[in-house]
Amino acid sequence: MSKRTKTWLRRGSSALLFILLVYFFLPLLGELKAAAALFRNANWIWFGIAIAVQLASYASLTWLNSLALQPFQGKIAFTRLAAVLTSMAFIQVAVPSMGISGVAMRVHLLKRSGYRPEESLASLVVETLGEAIAITTVVLFGVALVLGSGISVRSQLARYFLFLFILLMPAAYAWHVVADPVRTRTHLVFIASLLNRPGWRWKNLDVEKVEARLDEFRCNMLNYRQVPLWKLGLSSYVKVFLDVATLGAAFYMFGYPISASDLLIGYGLILLFSGSAALPGGLVMTEASVPVIFALLGVPGSVALAAGLVYRLIAFWMVRFIGYFCWHALEFEQPAKA
Questions:
Q1: CA dist 76 to 57, 117, 177, 231, Å?
Q2: How far is CA 296 from CA 124, 145, 292, 299, 300, in A?
């Protein structure tokens, strides 16, 4: 499949989702006046709590990235690393490129702290995997809460861990293959024999090149033996749970105590819509999807609109607003005198 075809497929699926979103969002337009009234009677203490929780969430993300960079020779202060991450968030919106601009910014800024490009990329992979696993398991926990309604706590936990086990099996097998050079080559040869058949419209898979890249990846991953796995897991889960808590605080701001299951499932669906959007960070798509998702989950339309706006303002726009100033400070800082 050509790159152009993939681009148009992505745009088409994004447009289809947007049309469906508009269809479900239209009934909420009548709630705009009621949503505006909610702000006049809101408990603004929860707004401050939401901001504080989101800042703690970003501090956890910085900790995760700090751990991911720990095996390498570079050195960067915690606050500077936080500034790098917010700069990445800003540039991904300012220069839409499906995340490439953010990766380039990471490599560019971390290079000044002594990290090679491949080290910046390897640490990004570790951070992304940690966050993805945390998000998926947290959302699955929400699903288990719904499916386990009226079931004993023991059965509910068993169902949850079954979901988790099924999810992690492919990841565990993939690592089992990649960790061993012999198994890696055996699987690559088999895949190449399938993809490189005459008549298939695929670019031929070069086993040697792929194997060389996997060797480099394997060497980078071996460096993580010195990083406690529990710290990587803890920082990932704390980041995600605090982000979910920010969303929950937005509902409490308007006097709506949302259930844990609705909150977790809604959070997962928000990320799904955000990832399907053609624009960076799920622009427009996420702003519209948050109230639609929670309205479908039974939240009053006016509350869903108001809470969704507050959450996006704090979790998305505030971070990128800070990122602009951080990027400006890092990009144009004066070199240290010898």
A1: 20, 15, 33, 18
A2: 35, 18, 6, 7, 9
The CA distance from 235 to 57, in Å, is 9
CB 287 within 8 A of CB 308: yes
Q: How far is CA 295 from the centre of its chain?
A: 23
- 254-272 CB burial, b ≥16 within 10 A, e <16: bebebeebbbbbbbbbbbe
Which tokens hold the place of 324? 């602009």
In which residue are the tokens 């602009």 written?
324
Q: Where are the alpha helices (DSSP H) in the chain?
A: 3-25, 32-40, 44-69, 78-94, 100-111, 117-147, 153-178, 181-195, 207-222, 229-252, 260-276, 285-296, 301-312, 319-331
Q: Is the confidence at residue 193, as pLDDT, over 90? A: no
- Do residues 22 and 288 lie in contact, with contact meaning Cβ atoms separated by under 8 Å? yes
**Structure tokens of 168?**
């992690």
Q: What is the pLDDT of residues 194-246, one digit of tens each?
A: 666 665 555 666 767 777 766 766 666 666 667 788 898 899 999 999 999 99
CA angle 205, 211, 214 (to 5 degrees): 120
What would you report as the CA-atom Rg of the chain, rounded to the nearest whole angstrom? 22
Q: Tell me the per-residue pLDDT of 99-132, one tens digit each, with 9 for 90 and over.
A: 788 889 999 999 999 998 888 888 898 898 888 8
Domain regions of the chain by residue span: 43-148+233-331
